[in-house]
Structure formats: structure tokens, C-alpha cells
């Protein structure tokens, strides 16, 4: 058993869909979807044909927005699911929401490529600057710090680049979660909702979480996996490489969750189109997949269970769990199985095909040669 054995509930790592009581606040919740009221859809601007039947108003719909009525004491918290799963109501309100798949695919591939190129350029520029000034690692001297801020600064300075990336990522996730108390509308629009057809949400949804348990678990997973994976031969302690991998994997895994709408029909498709998804689970499952291939003999487990498994043996059970959830679903669990499965496949493929030597290093070498030619000219 490895001394750094990990015990985390991989199977329940992320709630990629928010709880009903957290995300949808009635006073400000709005989804941009192509739904119309039946009166407008039929081309009539007056009263309904049968005035004796009172009009129900679970939502006041317009051509571009759907507003949910304010919450009252005797009503539950309105959610997108309350609107989406009622098939009869959906038929009364208008056509099925239109969700795009081709344009997001082009955007996701372009964004992932761009992030890898940007991080590779930053790494190449760093190497060129170090070579130009004759970089030599300086010995570290430790002096007693008189002030707390000096201790913090020295501790941060002594961290490895991967450690700084890990702590920085955790801090960003926490700051974004707290931003909902300051700028709720901005935070709410960061969730990925397929019916909104907003491509930027494939990136922004990585940083939002439904509540403290969701956030704390992802922080814990980051702390457990990222530092160890960063020191593996796949990343060689390179923080820029790890950042490019995590961001790209999160975006691609988000599209994998988006793509499951191709296989849904009717009320199930409407529910999918209006259900928000978010969380860093796609990136974390990609890290977990790569971790299992880089350290196949290390021990992983589930919290509260007294036994552990070899990482390479535990990975198939995790993927089988998500395949079952994606195919048949779990009534008591609200997980993004598509993002989990897609992220795990990305991590496995990147490790198996040696992305470090076949993708990252050639890309860094390309930008470094360009920068050196520009400097010498």
C-alpha cells in the first residue's frame, strides 16, 4: 500500500446539477429559450378562445425569456425541472426547445486548442527568458519571519509550481462560489443550460457549484489528485501543462454532457434542455483517469469504507457506474454522468497516448523556436 493512499468517494465526486433550493431564486431566475405562450404561438394577441377556462401561469413566457413567478410561502422553490418535466404543460406553452450541437462542437475544439497553445506559449516564453539570463536555481535560506504575512509569502514562495496551481484553483473555485452572494445574476448565467445555446458556458460552468458540500468535495479531490498527478512523468511538474490539461478536459467533458441530448426525446429532452449543469467534475475525472494509468498500483477508496483498491482496478467500476447512470439513471442521484464518463475517457486517452511527448512538448518547442528567432533577429 502506498503511503499516500487516497480515500475519496470517486463514484459520487460531483453533483453536476444544482440543488433546487440553491440555483433558482424566483425573483431573478430566467432562461433564454425559444418558448412562446399558446396565445402568441397561435398568432392571437387577444384572450384565449375559451374565456371560461382560467389561464394557468406557472411561468410567464415570452419569445426569448421564461420568467418564473415569485416564490410564496405555500409554494415550493420553482426550478427548471418543475417546468420541464410536465409534458402536458410543455405542450401548452410551445415547441420543444432547440439545442445546437454542431456549433458548440466547433467552439469546444477551438477553445481547447487555443488554451493548449496559450499555455504552451507561456511555457516557451518562460524557458526563453530563463535561458537568456542564465537561470540558476538559487539556494533557499530560511529566516524567522516577524509578521504573519511574511510567513504566508515565504510559504507560497517555497511551494512547487503544481502546488501553487492546486491552491490557486481551489481559491478560484471558492471565490466564484461566494460571488453568488454579490452578483447572483452573473453567477447564475455561468451554469451550462443546453437550451440557452451560449458557448461560453462550456468554460464558465467548470467554476460553479451547487452548494458547500459540492464545492468542498471538489476542493478535496483537487488537493488529493492534482499535486500527485503533476509530479507524474505525464506532466513532469509543469504547472502550465497541468492547467492546459484541466481546462481543456473540463470544456470537453462539458460538451460530452451536452451531447447526451442527441439520444433524448419528448419530455426527457425538454427536461435535459432546461436543466442546468456545473462543477469541476469533468476535469477531476480526467485527472483521475490519468492518475490511474500513471499510478496503477496506488490505493484509492471510498470515504467511510475501511478497504482500498488498486487504482487501475477501481477505475472500471467507476466508469461502469456512470455508464449505468447514463443509460438507466438513478432516481436518488442527480449526477452528470456524461461529464464524468467523458472526463475519465479523456484522462485515459491522454495518458495512454503519451500526450506529454506527442502534444505538449512539440507545441512548446514550436513556440520556443519562434521566440528565439524573433529575439535573435
UniProtKB/TrEMBL annotation:
The lineage of its organism: Eukaryota, Fungi, Dikarya, Ascomycota, Pezizomycotina. Keywords: Hydrolase, Membrane, Transmembrane, Transmembrane helix. Its main location: membrane. This is Peptidase S54 rhomboid domain-containing protein. Residues 39-58 are annotated as: Disordered. InterPro entries: Peptidase_S54_rhomboid_dom, Rhomboid-like_sf, Rhomboid_protease_S54. GO terms for biological process: signal peptide processing. Residues 199-353 form the Peptidase S54 rhomboid domain. Belongs to the peptidase S54 family. It comes from the Eukaryota. The chain crosses the membrane at residues 202-222, 242-260, 311-330. It is a multi-pass membrane protein. It is found in: Membrane. One of its GO terms (molecular function) is serine-type endopeptidase activity. It comes from Clohesyomyces aquaticus.
Amino acid at each position: 500500500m502506498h503511503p499516500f493512499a487516497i480515500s475519496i468517494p470517486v463514484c459520487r465526486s460531483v453533483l453536476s446539477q444544482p440543488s433546487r433550493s440553491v440555483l433558482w431564486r424566483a425573483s431573478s431566475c430566467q432562461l433564454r429559450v425559444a418558448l412562446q405562450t399558446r396565445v402568441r404561438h397561435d398568432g392571437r394577441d387577444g384572450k384565449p378562445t375559451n374565456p371560461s377556462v382560467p389561464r394557468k401561469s406557472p411561468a410567464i413566457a415570452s419569445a426569448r425569456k421564461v420568467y418564473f413567478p415569485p416564490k410564496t410561502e405555500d409554494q415550493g422553490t420553482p426550478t427548471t425541472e418543475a417546468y420541464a418535466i410536465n409534458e402536458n404543460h410543455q405542450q401548452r406553452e410551445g415547441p420543444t426547445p432547440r439545442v445546437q450541437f454542431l456549433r458548440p462542437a466547433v467552439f469546444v475544439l477551438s477553445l481547447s486548442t487555443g488554451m493548449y497553445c496559450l499555455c504552451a506559449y507561456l511555457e516557451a516564453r518562460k524557458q526563453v527568458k530563463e535561458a537568456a539570463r542564465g537561470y540558476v536555481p538559487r539556494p533557499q535560506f530560511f529566516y524567522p519571519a516577524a509578521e504573519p504575512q511574511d510567513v504566508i509569502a515565504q510559504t507560497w514562495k517555497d511551494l512547487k509550481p503544481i502546488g501553487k496551481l492546486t491552491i490557486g484553483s481551489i481559491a478560484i473555485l471558492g471565490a466564484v462560489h461566494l460571488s453568488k452572494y454579490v452578483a447572483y445574476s452573473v453567477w447564475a448565467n455561468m451554469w451550462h443550460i443546453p437550451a440557452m445555446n451560449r458557448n461560453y458556458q462550456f468554460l464558465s460552468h467548470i467554476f460553479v457549484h451547487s452548494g458547500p458540500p459540492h464545492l468542498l468535495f471538489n476542493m478535496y479531490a483537487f488537493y488529493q489528485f492534482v499535486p500527485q498527478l503533476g509530479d507524474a512523468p505525464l506532466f513532469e511538474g509543469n504547472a502550465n501543462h497541468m492547467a492546459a490539461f484541466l481546462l481543456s478536459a473540463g470544456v470537453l467533458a462539458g460538451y460530452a454532457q451536452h451531447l447526451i441530448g442527441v439520444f433524448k426525446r419528448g419530455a426527457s429532452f425538454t427536461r435535459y434542455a432546461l436543466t442546468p449543469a456545473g462543477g469541476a467534475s469533468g476535469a477531476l475525472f480526467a485527472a483521475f483517469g490519468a492518475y490511474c494509468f500513471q499510478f496503477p498500483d496506488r490505493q484509492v477508496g471510498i470515504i467511510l469504507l475501511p478497504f482500498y483498491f488498486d487504482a487501475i482496478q477501481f477505475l472500471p467500476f467507476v466508469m461502469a457506474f456512470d455508464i449505468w447512470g447514463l443509460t438507466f439513471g438513478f432516481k436518488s442521484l442527480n449526477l452528470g454522468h456524461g461529464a464524468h464518463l467523458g472526463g475519465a475517457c479523456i484522462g485515459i486517452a491522454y495518458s495512454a497516448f503519451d500526450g506529454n511527448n506527442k502534444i505538449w512538448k512539440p507545441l512548446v518547442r514550436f513556440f520556443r523556436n519562434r521566440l528565439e528567432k524573433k529575439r535573435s533577429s
